[in-house]
Specification:
The structure holds 2 protein chains of 2 kinds.
Chain A: E1 6-14, E2 26-32, E3 34-37, E4 40-43, H1 46-56, E5 76-80, E6 83-84, E7 100-105
Chain B: H1 12-22, E1 37-39, E2 42-44, H2 46-64, E3 73-78, H3 83-96, H4 100-103, E4 112-121, H5 130-136, H6 139-148, E5 152-157, E6 174-180, H7 184-187, E7 196-202, H8 208-221, H9 225-246, E8 251-253, H10 258-270, H11 277-281, E9 284-285, E10 292-294, H12 302-311, H13 337-351, H14 355-363, H15 388-395, H16 425-429, H17 440-450, E11 453-454, H18 461-466, E12 476-477, H19 490-499, H20 505-512, H21 517-524, H22 532-541
Parallel strand pairs in B: 3-4, 3-8, 4-5, 6-12, 8-10
Antiparallel strand pairs in B: 1-2, 6-7, 7-11, 9-10
Helix pairs in contact in B: 3-12, 10-13, 10-14
Classes of the chains: A mainly beta, B alpha/beta.
Chain lengths: ~110, ~550
Amino acid sequence: MTMSESLAIELQFSGGMELLFDNKKTIHTKVPAHFRQGADSHAVTIRDLIGWMASHLLKERPELFIGPDGSVRSGILVLVNGADWELEGELEYELQDGDEIVFISTLHGG
Amino acid sequence: MSCSVDEPTMTTAEKRAKDRAVHAGFCCKCKTEKSTITIRYAEYCDPCFVFSLDSKFRTALRNARPHRVVNPENLMLAFSGGSCSRSLIHLFNVFHSLPPEVVSNKMHPKVYNEIHVCHIDESSLQEQDQEGLAELSTMGKAREIAESYNYRFHGVHIEDIYDPEWSDSKCFSAVATLVTSLPKDQLAISGQAPDLLSHLAPLPAVSRQDRITKLKALLAACTTLTCKETILSHFRSSLLFQLTKRANCDVLVLGDSATKVAIQIIGLTAIGRGFSLPLETTAISNWVPNCKVLRPLKDSLLKELDIYCRLQNLQTIEGHSADLAYTVQSKAEVKSISRLTEEFITGLDKDFPSTAATVCRTAAKLTAPEVLYQDRCPLCHGPVQKGVKEWKNRITVMTPPNATVEPAKPAGQADDGCCSSNDNSATCCSSGPSNGPSACSSTRQKVDDGDALPFSSMLCYGCLTNLRDLDLKSMGNLSGAEERSFELPPLVAEGIADRLGYKTVEEALAQSTKADPRESLRAQIQEFLIDDDSDGDEEDGQP
């Protein structure tokens, strides 16, 4: 597996989250399969994805999406392939090619 | 010690934990499917989750209705467009979709008679020009959703609160304006919160645009986002009650989730609405006569309802609640108490998933206050405790203890016969064109008794506290010269008139506008008066 390889991911937004992402409900994107951390690299996890989304896709008000700990803000539900991300290892879940990640905001926004 | 002794000493929680460990990764109900949803440590598969939410909803409904339904009630479902109320409509539909053999069975009458859906369109408050408004309107989408279930739809715009049609009597065509009891130059140094008094003014028929302008003017006079949100929520619930009554419904059903109720409990307590808290958070509330309020989703978390909407493919309306953040002036105002509470509760809920449920259970022990509905607050239509204003004045420190400014002297005791002796006195004394320059304080004393109707003395503690965030500069004062930049809607004006015992809008207006008693006297004896001109004419006409 080469470092330049990328994974095709489908991102879905609802409950007001789409407003932060250019008003798009679904984004098909490719994320790098590996992220470099210092000297070594590791397979992309949701933690990496969230940071990557914040820098590449997010259009406005990052404080409404990403929390101080690098996770999503509390009140945002994340589903990985239809299952609660808490069951999939939360931030440490390693993304697979073709994964569908859903972000639902349960907050009123602001 | 025998081996069996250990078994009974296990607590229920430990047993459950052990149970869960055995079935880790599998649904806690069917124990055969892989779990996909986790709600408060319990894992469910999709079908079991839908089933459990439905059962929870049915339990809540059963607890709210009598054992034997004799007269089926009409329901009004309040639909905002969000996931909670969207789930509510769908759950009711599932609940009422009985198999034909049950429907035809006369022994099992329908539990509910008719189901109506109502929606309040708040798009006019968004930051948009006139053309953009039509696109933002949520009314069409709400109607579409309601009609897809064959439910009668009732829609109203939030600015219709300024329509006399939406007052309790359907024709209270008057608005209330507020005045402070102190002139502007004394507000800052008076050492006490000024009294708010009200005037009623007739409201001619206004266009929709005028109503939006009026509502925006009121919101602009609120200096904090909390104040704006609170006032809007009062208007929203007033409209919901009106919609319910007009559709001949007996029950208003709200989609408040456990998370929302927990946020309300903390948020409302923080803004001083603790007294009416039980009415605004219990599963059943009987405060408004002939209009029960039901919250059947009070035991379900927001997360559950969001997942339910997703699983059932239920379309919600995006941007259904007005975002007022654009109306605030400074960065510091962007947060409101309800926003902060929301963050607080959801933040806690992330690490401790029982937070919302615990807060709700604790507050469920509160009992509703024993106050008559007649003595309601004109603004929020909630219960009022006696003597809140005196109590508030007693416990509030408005000036620092070592303040150099003198507290304002009561009217009529000023040194020079005017309201104050400082340089600004000209502003005050130049108030009314008919008032002489030295008559200011005495005039004020006089009008204090007759002209204005009381307002702040009728408010509940929550509203009294909330209205402290109104910009006092936007109100007139009793001397009457200043521009009043906002008006309170007919429903509030009606509340004031109601508390004062005026039966009709004419009576209330006559009472409020009797600034010059000679005018009302003149009006009464108008037909007996002989006009100067006509006198002349008559004389001229006589040979």
